[in-house]
Amino acid sequence: MRATFVRHGQSTGNAGQPTSDLVAMPLTPLGVSQAREVACSWRREPTHIVSSPFLRARQTAEPSCVRFPGVPMAIWPIHEFTYLCPANWANTTRAQRRPTVEAYWDRCDPADVDGEGAESFSQVLRRAEAALARLAALPDDAEVFLFSHGQFMQAVRQSVGLAGQSDADKMAQFWPFDQRSPVLNCQKLVLGHRQGQWHVLGEEPLAAPELPALPVDMDAIAAGAAGGRFGRE
Fold it and tell me: What pLDDT band is residue 163 in, cutting at 50, 70 and 90?
C-alpha cells in the first residue's frame, strides 16, 4: 500500500500573524492557492482521504476531496505536535515563542509536558506509530492521501527510519534534522508498505496531473470550512 502525507498550506501562523487558536487557525490566501495546486497535482486516484482535525489541514484537503468526490474524508488524530502550553502563549508570534521553543528542545526530555493542552515528545511518537499501524491494516492496494502537519510528519519519518531507537535518541536527532530539512507547506512525504515493512519512497513534488482536474470554488471552501504546536504552525 502507498500513503502520501501532505503538510497543510500556508497558515496565518506561518505568515507571522499572532496565534490564538491552534485548532481553528485558517489558511492564508496563498495557502488556499497551494491547496488547489495539491489537488491538481495528484497522479493517482486515492482509495482513502484522511485529514487532521485542525482547520488548516482540512482546508488543504478540501480541494482534493472535490476532485475525488467518491472518496470520503476521514478525520484521524494526525494533528500537529503541540509541545508548549497553549494558554501561556495565546496571541503570540513565532518570533516571540522562539526562545522557549529552543529551550524545550535543549532539555531533550521526551516525557516533558509543558502544561495543559500540551503533549510530550513520546506521546507524539505514539500517535505517529498508531497512524502507521492503522494504515498498515488497510488493503495492500490502498492509496491513501493524508493531510497533516510538519512536525507530525517528521515524527512519522522517524518512526519509519529510526525504528528501534529510544525516544530520547529520536528526540536528540529531531530538532537538528527539522531545522536542516523542514517540511515545507504542501510538501509530500510518500511511504510504501510491503511485506510488513514501511519504506520512505521520497518527497514527491507537485506535478502536472494525469487525471482530469475538477473546478474548485476556493472562496466557498475558505468560507465554509469550520473547525499544532506553537512553533512553525
Answer: very high
Higher-confidence residue of 90 and 226: namely 90
The one-letter amino acid code at 213 reads A
Q: Looking at the domain that runs over 2-221, which CATH code has it been given?
A: 3.40.50.1240
Nearest Cα neighbor of 26 from 185, 225, 219, 217 is 225
Q: State mean pLDDT over 75-88.
A: 94
The DSSP call for residue 24 is T
Q: For residues 180 and 45, give the distance between their C-alpha atoms in angstroms, rounded to a whole number.
A: 32
Maximum pairwise Cα distance, the chain: 50
User: What's this model's pTM, rounded to 2 decimal places?
Assistant: 0.87
Q: Is the separation of the CB atoms in 207 and 54 below 8 Å?
A: no
β-strand partners of 191:
3, 200
In contact, 44 and 143? CB cutoff 8 Å: yes
Residue with the three cell numbers 473546478: 215
Q: Is 80 exceeded by the pLDDT of residue 192?
A: yes
The residue extents of the domains of the chain are 2-221
C-beta of residue 14 within 8 angstroms of C-beta of residue 232: yes
What are 11's strand-pairing partners?
A: 27
Query: How far are the Cα atoms of 11, 108, 149, 213 from residue 152, in angstroms, in the given order?
Result: 16, 17, 5, 29
8 A C-beta contact, residue 173 and residue 123:
no
